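Re-running Acetolactate synthase-1/2/3 large subunit to confirm reproducibility after the cluster update. Everything else is unchanged from the original entry.
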Amino acid sequence: MAHWELEGQVKHYFADELEKDAEMTGAQFIVKFLEHKGVTQIYGIPGAAILPFYDAVLEQDLMRSISVRHEQTAIFMADGYARSTGKVGICAAASGPGATNFLTGLYSAYGDSVPLIAFTGQVETDLIGKEAFQEAPIVEMAKPVTKAAYLVTETDDLPRVMNEAWKLANMGRKGPVLIDIPVNIQLGQLKLNLKEYFKEEKQVANNFVQATDSQLDIVYKMLEEARRPVIMVGGGIVGRAAEDLVRLAQLLQIPVVSSILGKEGFPNYHPLYAGMVGTICQTPLGNKTILEADLIINLGGRFDYRSMGEITLLNKERKVINVNKEDDNLSESAPVDLTIVSDIKSFIQSFSSYIIGCKYKPKTEAMDRIAALQKEKARIARQTNFTENPSKSLQAIFEVRKGLRPDAIVALDSELSQLWASQLNEMYESRTFLITGCAGSKGWGLGASMGAQLAYPQRQVINIMEDASLSISLQELATAAKNVIPIVIVVFNHDQSRQNGLDFVSAAKGLGVEAESVERINQIPGALTRGFSAYRPYLIEVMVNSEEQGLASSGGVA
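Result of re-run:
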């Protein structure tokens, strides 16, 4: 059942529960809180210090608990669920090594502004600091890579902590929150009037920060003075304002470029899309467009190194406007002429209305510039038609994209295949391009794809990776098989003789996943058809040119 199908059931279930005072354990309260927020899935591994929480999960029928083979995959699944839905991902682990296995996932979610809450069990409060079995100072470890990390020392504090954590994960620049809960706090008794606690706060219309009229006026004047303006799209716009951005770009008739995390924030097929910028751009056109610009309007991005390279290129000859939700994202890395703290969707809508009110008309040279951009895009398009056998990964990735629906969700791991798949996969809808941008964690894509597939059972979800990533996450094929998660995994194997690596097809079958190997490009469409028709996890091993492996191992063009 998809995440949205349970919302009505949750509200109906709470109709009776909210009418009376209730006594419950701390663990039961957490579960009721999550139910009230519409959470339908929890990923993790039960263990001694988190068992009261899992017992409370088993007492209800509205949430599904998915157990994985390694805690890191649980938080990757929560991450993929959150990126594909825009909702908060939930994961849980025991104390000690179970908790510390969440750190890479917290770091990845924090770097990419992904909302999730990670629950960890902890030894009893009177044992903390005494080197008890499986005690770890996870709160101190997690603080640098979370928006907040809580150690709950009183059961009565849980209502406040849960409310704060949920708001923090969702507000401003979204991100992960960790809640560490000792066993005795989970088992402690709590008496609470749920009706009062869950009372809906009155929503104030337009309570988010908005650009002022004077700021819109300055943006308009800077735009009027510019001869070669460009819009740059960052990850902050994904899932928020794609249609509004298309409308604005068409009104202005100026090109749009994107960072890798903003790639799905603007339709890649659109005539105004010039491509990605930075060190992994698919063609030189995106970088060429931004380097020739005399005005950059950056929406929801932060000019990180991967997107901009040498930031000194943003010199005085090039004016920069940066719009983001929080001021700590503004001007972190680049000299900016105008910073605007605003909700991105609100800014785009307000500025669109502003320029319509000013009766703005694109200059003739702007129209000529767009026509030239289209010709240049066609001229320097990437080559994908090769004759080698085994095939080049570039051609294989291109063939895989052709076999997917427009709304298919693509999850990538961090290898050379990530770079090429980012370059060659045109994205048509927001929240369909899942990538570990800041952390670059190998093995991330398999977990993320499972979380996305569980959120959208009817959608095509595919994980594209290379042999090194699958070697790291191979055990999670058993998770996919046990829970009948119908993802398709495409692994590019550079080890043609299979002497130095795993036999992925045999290993997958041994873990309960259907699998096959293909050696020619023309075999990929049939394999994809069989994979998506299986309605269960399916692995496709694609044998590719081993000469690419050296480049992949060295980090490639990144």
